[in-house]
UniProtKB/TrEMBL annotation:
Keywords: Cytoplasm, Transferase. Its main location: cytoplasm. It comes from the Bacteria. The gene is tusD. Belongs to the DsrE/TusD family. GO terms for cellular component: sulfurtransferase complex. It is found in: Cytoplasm. Pfam families: DsrE. InterPro entries: DsrEFH-like, Sulphur_relay_DsrE/F-like, Sulphur_relay_TusD/DsrE. One of its GO terms (molecular function) is sulfur carrier activity. This is Sulfurtransferase complex subunit TusD. GO terms for biological process: tRNA wobble position uridine thiolation.
């Protein structure tokens, strides 16, 4: 059984990358393999913005990631530095900076690059989108 880590570095608004990443993740699971985590980095952190609204005319990526996490016990890790730089903040950052609300909520978890690299030791495959 293969164990995967998926690295998302592209924006959800950039072509069909988000759809391909989700299809790949489902294929891994359908094959009987495991996804240990999905790590959102760089422009990929935009996938995790809880203030996105479903427009109904395209894939609603936020719910798709949440479904993957809940149905298959996949950790969704978000690079804290990349997220904060792009205005994606947790309850703690919102409170510390006087913001009215957070836009990074469960099941997404903040993590540093060090935590991601440590998690890679539990995997034998890394795929980037």
């Amino acid at each position: 059984m293969a164990e995967y880590s998926i690295l998302i570095t592209s924006s959800p608004f950039q072509g069909d990358t988000a759809l391909r990443a989700l299809a790949f993740a489902q294929g891994v699971i359908d094959n009987g393999d495991v996804i240990n985590n999905v790590f959102f980095y760089s422009e990929g952190v935009h996938h995790t913005n809880n203030l996105m609204l479903n427009t109904g005319d395209e894939l609603f990526i936020l719910d798709s990631w949440k479904t993957l996490a809940s149905e298959h016990n996949v950790k969704l890790l978000v690079c804290i530095t990349a997220a904060v730089k792009r205005g994606i903040v947790s309850e703690l950052e919102a409170k510390e900076n006087g913001l009215s609300q957070a836009n990074l909520t469960a099941p997404f978890e903040q993590a540093g690059l060090g935590e991601f690299f440590t998690a890679l030791h539990e995997c034998n495959r890394l795929v980037q989108f």
